[in-house]
Specification:
3-stranded mixed β-sheet
Length: about 500
Amino acid sequence: MKKISYQTLKDNGYKGYLLRTAPERVIQFGTGGFLRAFAEDFIDRMNEKADFHSKVVLVQPIPHHSSPNLQDFINEQEGLYTLYLRGTENGQAVEEKRVISCVSRCLNAYSEYEKVLECAGNPELLFVISNTTEAGIVYDPDCRFEDSPAASFPAKLTQLLYHRFQIFKNIPGKGLIILPCELIEDNGRELESCVLRHARDWNLGEAFTRWILEENLFCSTLVDRIVTGYPRSEAERLNSENSFEDQAMDAGELFGSWVIEAPDSLKEEFPCEEAGLPILITDDCRPYRERKVRILNGAHTAMALGAYLSGRDIVRDCMEDPVIRTFMNAVVFREIIPTLTLPEEELKNFAVSVTDRFSNPYIDHSLLSISLNSTSKWKARILPSLTRYMEKFEGRIPPCLCASLSLLLSFYHGRELTDQGLSSSRETGDTYLIHDDRTILQFYEAHRDDAPAAYIHAALSSSAFWGLDLTKLPGLEGQVLRDYLLIQRDGCHELMRRAAGL
């Protein structure tokens, strides 16, 4: 079977959109499945619908560890690959297939460093996109300007920008628009801070620092799409259906959202509205980050542990259980949305999309994977909604958010701490491992034989876990204890049923 290529598609009579040649206006650090199913999807659609007319140079920011690898596949396939977006809309399964043609080539930052720097000299280049993991945007004092390349992404970007500065410093408008997609708060500001620090520590001069600040735009962003990557179990069937071999195919959910904190003028260069894409350019990302963390991630954290203890294994199982589904909706619509600042209708529309996403028949999202580090997740995702609810409603305790804490404490009631984690068992008798910070697991092991009231008090008063002493919130400790005792007597499913008002 022939590999996917422009000629193969022509021979096969492919009728979809393709862009064979265009200027390389985007350089992207990161070749993983997420960006190729997210940024490249949107760029490809802007090329088709809004005459964006841009190609993307992918940069693999780490050395080769195997051969062949994704870089080889991308280049052998002329940058082409098939993207499958699958999910539910209004309760119906939907699948979209698109050949992505916006990628020109893939470079490796280590074996092809000079070619990466050559991209900085391209007068058409305008955008930098990155996704180098949450740990990617950090200042590394061991990086040197002479490294070929520097180890960290911010240091690599500083090298790239300095190379461009040397070529275009006297020509206005040749700075770059940087769109980091790493999942950290204020990722644009953090990246800019690292670049400026490298420029200072490497003694690259005040003129370069001014050029960074005046000619370049670092945008904080918020990205949202579940991407499952290469569909290995289906690859043979999909290749057969397509009549070509595609070793770089990618898959993700239909839902996608990209919030970019930038001036409104960015729309002139990045025509996302004209292309009808779910990309929002705003002067403040924070309300949208809060919406995602509190609704989407909060719903996961609120229900996952109790659902697992009561015998469910994946998120979709929860959506097929009327009690758990009603509990999740009560968490979101009754208790979280009233605490947020965006318009209510906008919040409700986002919440409805969450239900569709959780019901996706193409994604088996493990509840145990969601359970990782649940202590910090509960603090970040649930506690702000709980405290704000109590402030807004004169001390009234939100029953479902409160229940989520009792469910967490039941899940963490382990027996034996090993190098792998804290072991426990659920209502079905299956054993499982709790994974969290070691000091947190040691706390729960130390309190495993406490009476319920003592255990609840010890956990809630551990300010190091929550950032405050939860026993100081009026009535919370008593309600958590009552919920915990109900779980011991009747199970997690019953607590979720009662908390949801069923």
